[in-house]
Amino acid sequence: MILMRIVLMGPPGSGKGTQARKIVEKYGIPHIATGDILREAIRSKSELGMIAKEYVERGDLVPDEIVNEIIKERISQKDCERGFILDGYPRTVMQAEALDQILEKMGYKLDAAIYLDVKEEEIVKRLSSRRVCTKCGAVYNLLLNPPKKDEICDICGAPLYQREDDKEDVVRRRLKVYVDRTKPVIEYYQRKGILRRIDGNRSIEEVWESIDNVLSTIETF
Length: 221
Prior knowledge:
Order of helices and strands: EHEHHHEHEHEEEHEH
């Protein structure tokens, strides 16, 4: 039986979602995105979800201790017995330390923190080329998967638009915030000897091959 507990890290536009889907497809472990968990906790009106909702509605960050507990609940579920991919968590060293403690109490450990390392200019190019359908929400990339007709959705024929947070100046600010917040977490996993840097500037398949090579060395049965 495959047992694999990993953290997948990378700046916006690094391709984490695409690579996470490939990991799920091959290894059959759940992809746990922090944003999705928080939304589900709020939707289900769980005790922790209702506490988190108060912060979200005020526009505040949900405190580490609340996020830690929500993560703990999620990775304690049956579908995580064989492992998981954490995406968007931990975001701080405190969260990383809390995750180690949670896993230790469960008798587990984190196998690897995989960091998709992508140059700033490549990120800006990728994100500023993203377009979204105004009607059905389909997502395109003018460089990687452009629509058949310029700025028109292939699915419903509605016009495409560029999200405000995909504009170049906003993307650069988002990247700076990400780097400032995440650098200590990357260093934390580097010191623990489980950080695996992957060159994310390459094609999707080349990046996947590198990730798969890493995973093949840590899986256990």
